[in-house]
Structure formats: C-alpha cells, structure tokens
Amino acid sequence: MTVPFTHTCLASALALSTAWSWAQTTELEPTVVRGNYNNAVGTSDAASQGVVTSKLIENRSTLRPAEVLEFVPGIIVTQHSGDGKANQYFLRGFNLDHGTDFATFVDGMPVNMPTHAHGQGYSDLNWLIPELVDRLSYRKGPYGAEEGDFASAGVARIRLFDSLPRGLASVTVGENNYRRALLANSTKLTTGQWLYALEAAQNDGPWEHPEKFHRLNGVLRYSLAKGNTKSTLTAMAYAAHWNSSD
After folding, report:
1. DSSP 70
2. Alpha-carbon distance values, 231 to 183, 191, 222, 226 (Å)
3. Which CB contacts under 8 angstroms, 24+ apart, belong to 162-165?
4. Do both 60 and 105 map to the same domain?
5. Given this model, what pLDDT does residue 194 score?
6. Is residue 130 within a helix (H) or strand (E), and if so which, with residue range?
7. How far is residue 158's CA from residue 20's CA, in Å, rounded to a whole number?
8. Given this model, what pLDDT does residue 35 score?
C-alpha cells in the first residue's frame, strides 16, 4: 500500500514546484537583431550576391576609400606605387588588376575607364568619401550581361546618402604623416534637400621616398522625392598629386 502513497506525494510536490516556477516567470524586453548584410532568402537570385548596409560601413574604419569594396566577401584591395593611382583588386584569388574584370558604379555612374592608358577598366575610387556611402550591392561571377564589359568577375553598385543621419566633422592623425579632415552635412529645403561634404587628406605612406600624397574632395548633392519618384543631381570635384614610389 506504500507505492500509491509515494506516487501521490511525488505528484503533489511536482505540482507545487511547477506553480512556483510560473509565479517566478519574468517577461524580458524584446531584443532586435539587425544584420549587416541584407541577404535574406528571396532577396537575391544567387548566393553570391547581396547588399551591405551603411551600419557595417560606419563601424569599420578605412585607410583608403576603395576599401569599401572589401565589404564584398572575397574581395581584397591592395596598393602599389602609392595612393594616387587606382588600387589593385583581387577576388576569389584572381588578380583583377586595377579593375579590368570588376565593374564598379557609384549612383549608377560607371567608374571603370575603358580607354585609360594604364589599363582597360581602370577603376580609381580615391575620390570616394566612405562616410557618404549608404549601401553597397554586389554580385560575384558572370551572371548579369546587363552589368557591362567589365563585370566578368563581379560588380559592385555603391549608393550614396541623400541625407545624412547627422552632421559630420572629424580630424584624423596617424603615422607616416597621415592627416585627414572631413566636414559633411545635409539640409532640408522647401522642396528636396542638399547634401554637401568637403574632405582634405595627406599621407607619406610606408615608402623610403615619401609619396607626399595630397587630395581634396568636394561633393554637392541635391535630391527630390515625390511619391514613388526620386531624382538626384550630384556634383563632385577631386584633385590630387603624389610622388609615385616607382
């Protein structure tokens, strides 16, 4: 007769324990997880394409403007002869030279130069201000004939902000006489809005003969959105000079 009594006591103890557990339950605040890559299922035609958000670009420092392309998985951006010429690009272990096989666009404008004396497809991004990049969409591999002649290894489309989340004013100092100053902001108008930025930088680089690289950038951008239609007009100015290491 002891077995049923033991089971009854055990069941009562479990019931009390369960009731106590429910009484101690605490509801936590919701947790929001935002990915830095917008590569959800259904957003891309292939696993080798995607979109990089501005949050990731903001959280990673860049020494050279073209390093924004390194947010594309598999791309490596290097340099030789100094900062005044287009970078050397590598994708999946292949040498893309200075952009010959990788098409790059900034707000729809093609960056690759088809008739440059240094090499066909020459892609110089030294005039780009990374803080103005809103997002970067990419595609690796020869999947889109609409991307043009230089997209045999891939393509990157960089989109600029129409308006900045906040104004920017920064001064950066580093080794090898690296100096950089940036001023950028956006202003709403009665119709549309202005975005403006001014950047000045210099760098001697890690060379025995200092490259004495100096650059000056200016951006003025007007955007107007009405319903589903958006129009933008962008003016850019870039000047630079340096001593090539070779």
Report:
1. G
2. 24, 12, 8, 9
3. 162/134, 162/186, 162/193, 162/195, 162/221, 162/223, 162/225, 162/230, 162/232, 163/188, 163/193, 163/195, 163/223, 164/132, 164/195
4. yes
5. 94
6. none
7. 56
8. 61
| Domain enclosing residue 108, as ranges | 49-160
Q: DSSP character for 113?
A: B
Instruction: Select from 112, 128, 160 the last residue of a domain.
Output: 160
Same-domain check for residues 173 and 212: yes
Q: Count the Cβ atoms, other than its own, within 10 Å of residue 185.
A: 14
The residues pairing with 136 across neighbouring beta strands, listed in sequence order, are 52, 158
Residue 55 CA to residue 45 CA, distance in Å, equals 24
Q: Of 200, 136, 204, give the one whose Cα is nearest residue 169.
A: 200
Of residues 53, 33, 54, the one with CA closest to residue 166: 54
pLDDT of residue 237: 96
Segments of the chain with pLDDT less than 50: 1-3, 5
At residue 171, the pLDDT reads: 95
d(CA 16, CA 127): 70
Residues 97 and 150 in one domain: yes
